[in-house]
Amino acid sequence: MDMHKEVSLQVDTTTEHDYAHLSNLLQEFTSIPDIDKAWHFKSESSATLDLQGMFSITQPDLLGNKKRKLIMSCNILKESGSSAKFLWAPFPVEMSGVSMVVPSPSGSKLLIIRNPENEEAPSSFEIWSSSQIEKEFHIPQLVHGSVYNDGWFEGVSWNLDETFIAYVAEEPSPEKPTFDHMGYKKGSSADKDCGCWKGQGDWEDDWGETYAGKRQPSLFVININRGEVHAVKGIDKSLSVGQVVWAPFTEGLEQYLVFVGWSSGTRKLGIKYCSNRPCAIYAVRAPHHELEFHSTEDLLALNLTHTISSAYFPRFR
After folding, report:
1. Order of strands, sheet of 178-180, starting from the edge strand that comes earlier in the sequence
2. Rounded Cα distance, 219 and 243, in Å
3. Among 97, 98, 101, which residue's Cα sits nearest to residue 54?
4. Taking a C-beta distance cutoff of 8 angstroms, is the pair 76, 53 a contact?
5. Which residue has the higher pLDDT, 147 or 78?
6. 183 in Cβ contact with 127 (< 8 Å)
7. What are the residue boundaries of the structural domains of the chain, listed by start?
8. How far apart are CA 190 and CA 45, in angstroms?
9. Which residue has the higher pLDDT, 277 or 176?
10. What is the DSSP letter of 29?
11. Residue 111 — left, alpha, or beta (φ > 0 → left; ψ -120 to 50 → alpha)?
12. Does the structure show a pLDDT above 80 at 186?
């Protein structure tokens, strides 16, 4: 007597209906793009157009298990009363491999940042005009690591005359000790040198969560005319910085950068999902004026909000 029972591997009709219904819902939800950032500029090319808009949007890529980054532009016309009419471009443009997109204040230039894919590759900064790429800079890991684009430490800011860009990136990796068959070896050597190996160096705490393995966020300024990058001096090493903006410029006075600083204390223990961490807004002189400093005190960042426990997202109108 055959004791084996035939087991049906087919999905029942009700379950199939649920699968189809839920998959349709998922497709409908993921077809709706998210607007991450938006900018508007005064139109100087036409007397009839009032404003031009630019939007950074993302949309899930289910098959690739990632997000697509796209740019959409529009013209904005003022109509009677307080209403406005949006004239959208026919299609968005996908920005493949792009970490950040930041237009200049006038809208005449566009900064595109591509973070390195490994610990040896440089960061790429591209400056685009309306029809072509004007300049491209590759920032080696010896200067800094990846630019922060997390929405929290993240900060990229053009100055008013669009010659300098301030941004937040991982500080450069400290030099690791090198050893060979004779023991410790003075000086640096390539990681792939035959007969040598490198230690890990001193252990450093990170902010955990989505920041595991990322180095401390630090402040840098690039001169887009010369391609020179300078780390901003005067910021205490205990501060993790973010959300940098240029302070309004006054003719004849020094330019300042305003940023948020989080003091790590003894342990960092997360920040993205613990947004109530104590922080303060600081101001520091921009590094391209450092030759004009007359004392060490001129370099030090100034705490602008020392009377309150938490302050972030500085903005000027």
Report:
1. 183-185, 178-180, 197-198
2. 10
3. 101
4. yes
5. 147
6. no
7. 32-96
8. 53
9. 277
10. H
11. beta
12. no
One-letter amino acid at 126 equals E
pLDDT at 293: 43
Residue 191 has pLDDT above 60, yes or no: no
Instruction: Give the 3-state secondary structure of residue 298.
Output: helix
Measured distance CA(247)–CA(240) in Å, rounded: 20
Q: What share of the chain is helix, strand, coil (3-state, %, to 5)?
A: 10, 35, 55
> For 297-315, how does the pLDDT look when each residue is reduced to its tens digit (9 = 90+)?
567 999 999 999 899 999 9
Q: How far apart are CA 228 and CA 247, in angstroms?
A: 21
Q: What are phi and psi of 64, to 5 degrees?
A: -85, -5
Specify the higher pLDDT residue, 12 or 113: 113
User: How far is 235 from 251, CA to CA, in rounded Å?
Assistant: 25
Pick from 57, 90, 56, 88: which is nearest to 75 by CA? 88
Instruction: Kindly state the greatest CA–CA separation across the chain.
Output: 102
Strands (E), the chain: 34-42, 51-61, 66-78, 84-88, 93-94, 100-103, 110-114, 123-128, 133-139, 156-158, 164-170, 178-180, 183-185, 197-198, 217-223, 228-231, 239-246, 256-263, 279-285, 302-303
Our CA angle for 180, 184, 188, nearest 5°, is 80
pTM over 0.70: yes
* End-to-end CA separation in angstroms for the chain: 87
